[in-house]
Each structure stands twice: as C-alpha cells, then as structure tokens.
Amino acid sequence: MLNSIFLLNSRGDSLFCRNFRNEDKAQPEQYWQEVQSTEGKCGPVFECGGYNYISLNTGGIYYVIASNGLNGSPSHFVEMLIAVNRIISDFCGGS
Questions:
Q1: Of 32, 41, 42, 75, which residue is least crowded by CB atoms under 10 Å?
Q2: pTM score, two decimals?
Q3: How many structural domains compose the chain?
C-alpha cells in the first residue's frame, strides 16, 4: 500500500511531499540519511525503518515512494514513478 510520495533535489531538500495515510508518516529525511550513509550506492528499492522505499533518480531529482507493506509490487511503483517523471517533465518543458 502506498503511504507517501515525495520529490527531493540533489541536496536532499523536499520539493514535494504527500502522505496518503494517517498512520506513521515516512519522512524524506529518513530516506535521505540512508542514501547518504551508503554514498548513493543503495539500490532503487530498499527497506529502512519499517518502510520500503522505491526511488528513481532523474536529472538530479529523486522521485520516491514509501510503502509500509509487502502488498505492492516494486515494479508497479517504479512504473508509477516513471509516469510521474514524464508528467512533470512535460509540464515543466523538460526533455
């Protein structure tokens, strides 16, 4: 189940954050600390602090989905992130 979606810039600042459930909220800072501790070598899907993080890094922007369960397919979430990336690129005039 999708809990949160957020966008971070290359410094870890939150550009957009939306929590969809009223449970414990996944924090962008928790994701960014994990990325920094592995020096950016963590995979696009990993678990940290009880959340599964699925991410896509395109053009210096990190598109991240946080899920707290195993009832979602990581490939489905990656496809969703690609679609969000495509929509934002079209809206902002990116290539």
A1: 41
A2: 0.85
A3: 1
